[in-house]
Amino acid sequence: MGRKNKTYHHRPWSPVNQGERINYRLGFLYILTFVAFVVIAAKLFFLQVMNHSYYLDKAKKNAENRRELPARRGTISIAREGILAKDILNYSIALSAKRLRNRQKVIKELVSTLHLR
């Protein structure tokens, strides 16, 4: 008796099965992308909603920075010719119109404090 060849009703290398494998791979990729999106959205929600007060305080401290100014240096002079360099005290003030509640009051206080009139 000769060997009888096995007949496969289902060939793993057939084009139909390859298409199914691609569909499974694409489905897995879609699920993986969706899960990654959900993780990123959850992290953004946690940062923006749950930690809102923490980052608001941090932003306020960043905007309202206080620091000590160094002392004046003095005048550099040459013996015969006089003053070569002189240190002039200068201030720069910036106001945000959005943050001012009572503009006229602030302007009056700045004028009187800086002796502008």
Write the topology of this structure:
Layout: H1 15-50, H2 52-63, E1 76-78, E2 82-85, H3 103-114
Antiparallel strand pairs: 1-2
Largest sheet: 2 strands, antiparallel
**Helix-strand pattern:** HHEEH
The separation of the N and C termini measures: 122 Å
Outline type: elongated
Instruction: Name the average pLDDT.
Output: 80
Strand content: 5-15%
Q: What is the percent of helical residues?
A: 40-55%
Keywords:
single chain; 117 residues; mainly alpha; two-stranded antiparallel ribbon; 3 helices
Explain how this protein is built.
The protein is mainly alpha-helical. The chain has a domain of 46 residues. Helices cover 51% and strands 6% of the residues. The protein is built from 3 helices and 2 strands. The protein has a two-stranded antiparallel ribbon with strand order 1-2. 0% of the residues are buried.
Summarize the structure.
By secondary structure, this protein is mostly helical. Helix content is 51%, strand content 6%.
